Amino acid sequence: MTRSPSSGPAEPAEFDVRAFARSAHGSLRDDLDLEAVAAAPLAPDVVAVLDTLAVLEGATMAHLRNVLVTNTHKDARVTAFLVTWAFEKFWIADALRAIVDASAGAGAGPGVGAEGRGSPPRTGTAAPGAAASAGRGPVRRAFAGITQGWAVVGAHMTVGLVDDRALGAAYARVAESSTSAALDAAVGRIVAVKGRHARFFDEEARRRLTTSPRAARLARRELRRTAWPLGGAALTAEQRAGFSRFAFGGPEGHARAADLERGIAALPGMDARTAAIVRRGLAGRSAA
Amino acid sequence: MAFDIDRYTATSVGVRWDDLDLEDFRAHPLPERSLRTLRYMADVEYHTVCYTRDLLTTPSHREPDVSAFMTMWNREEFWHGEALAAVLAMHDITVDYDVLRASRLKLGWKDRLDPIKQSVLGSLVGADFVAVHMSWGAANEWSAITAYQRMAELEEHPVLAELLRRIAKQEARHVAFYTSQARERLAASTKAQKVTRFALSRFWAPVGSSINSTDDVRHVMTHLMSGTEGRRAARKVDESISGMPGLEGLTIVQDALEELGVPA
Question: Out of the domains of life, which is the source (chain B) (predicted)?
Fold first, then answer.
């Protein structure tokens, strides 16, 4: 199917971006039982992965830096979503940091007490100030975007979807290993907020991949070249390895990774090779 | 005084207008020239995410305070666009995602090359380039507040005045962030002062110039900044800009008005 350069996907979108923007979730702190977390500190590996997730959830500007230099910035519906998505993820990162700090106890742990309620997420200590987007910078992406046209929007939606699922695997592992009702409730709340992000990315990715072979080709390439998870460049090597081990290590982790891989391969226009490369990247082994 | 980013993020909200009687615009519609100005303002607000792109090409995106501010700022400006679009809708003027997309498509090559240009300049100038963006942002936000205040004064429409007052109140916090950032960076570096002074005096144009026709820019500036009161407002913005370290004597807003042929 050929499409004019200025056209978008043929199928109408169902996700109501305006309603999403109108009902965005801000701070989640009122929903957190931090006293309960402080009273029964969490396991060190859970604390570490929550700390890592806070960095990853908060790395939205680094991601926007990459996508906005392309045609994605011209799609006003997508940018309206991304503006609200970044806002909600900011507060998810804040909630995660609050849980980490509560578990560590006042005056202890990384950055505890040094940052306030609305502080942005911490970054890994081994790479202070590091860009959270590894690899190609805005110039290369902007040049590439000139020839990629509208198809690149589909690629970006697919990357968003896969990253969302990868973080979802980590949250699933946190929930499985949790012995804290307070943590269960917090993770449930976060996953619910992220549910709408997943729906948007899923719908947009499928719609665009189905109608545009070019979008599918670009998405395959983007998935293979992306350093997973998004925002991982702001982590220390230890944090990255810890994230991979926690979410995708052991028999259950392997099952989660296999599930993720199957899900990627089943997306319109995706293939087993691409899915396997993403899985390897998330497992801490180098991408293609 | 340093900008309190924690307080800002904790209190950032989308501007509200659901308690305002927009139906009043049916009985007392705004004149055509005002609707044209409002449409321009809505376009600028919605376009914030695209301005963000340029700022993100500088090293500033690595700074937590800047990243946190931009997250909230983008959302607040989006809602300013939605609020203005709601007023326009009462006059049967539609500004939806398709309309915005079509507007952005018209921007052409300059828009495509802007992030490349910004990134290259950022690499050449280094960290001091962030001062240019922060000063530029301050100039734009000061201009925006002034524009909303002037619009409210000129229209004397109570519902519009209240909405614009709410928007301007949020813009004031944006000014506080940008000026705090700009002052600190300018004060710390003579090079930042020189580069910023050069960039503002040579390239600054009224906010919205890059996405609207010169006719539209001239219309809005004439509507809001002409005559004694308009020029006084422009002078006030210039005084604020030139009050920053190393920017003494700059009159970029008044210069732009002269260039556009806006009557004094």
Answer: Bacteria
